[in-house]
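Re: the 327-residue chain
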Amino acid sequence: MEPNLLGLALQTGVVSLPRGLLATGDQGPRLDCSRMRRGRLEQRLTGQRGGWKSRSMPEVPVNGVRLYYEEHGQGDPILCIHGTSSSAMVWRPAAIDELATLGRVICYDRRGCTRSERPAPYETSVAQHAEDAMGLLQALDAVPAVLIGRSYGGETAVELALRHPRTVRALVLLEAALLTLDKEAMVWAGELRAAVEAAAARDVSSVAETFLRRVLSDEQWESFRDPVRQMFVDNSPAILAEFRGPWLEATEADLARIQVPTLLVAGEASPPAFRRVTERMAASIPDSRTVLVGGGHFIDPGEPDVLKFVDEILGQRARLPPLPKEW
């Protein structure tokens, strides 16, 4: 039998590799090629190396579907819930690294998106995603958690806080798309929905571009690298299902029941509908504060105000340096 050259090289110190890339077998250490392939995919999507710092990147069955998730860091749980069209791959890696110095960061792909299972036929709702988030947190023994939700993910976080308040330690709402709170916002949402349906009638794969050009901007869409754009395009059926499914219809009275600390973050260049909704949420949620940051709707969870808020909640670090904006 040939000697295990990799094992010999590791033992003698000739080579060294991150532990996450090694697996063991009857013949000693070997490279975990599936993990290497996953790391290369994430590098293509984000433009940065990632994956080796993660404790794990598995799937877990929740409410009849397989959900892909990742964990970064240790300590009290922080759940990141992405918006419509996205996945956990779109969170800026440096922001996740910063959050991971504060606690145990859990990022996942919501049902129907990218690496999580998409049932066929696929119909969904904000309530269903909230129950998925609840199931994921329970499966990972991660209750209560700080929830960071962007756009539709913010709706999901609010719904979870209303349905299962003991699950939530604090909320960070990055322009939660609670558009039903405001009549003018719903006029804009109706126009957006009509554009998405028209795109679907022409070609379902065009839904993502139509949606993101209107919500983010033409410039933002053009700035995405091809693999990232393709990820959005592949999620077009999920975008359509989320538009067609019931949205969150919480009232001001409902929001007044939220008793956990809440940070509302709005983008200076976002469509005005999101600012209107953020202001209404701020007036209704008792223990809330609002900050305005540069850029559009694609708000970064690594914003200094977000990190400082999470730090206050979890109490693990007193000072945080400002972060460069890489996206």
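The radius of gyration is 20 Å.
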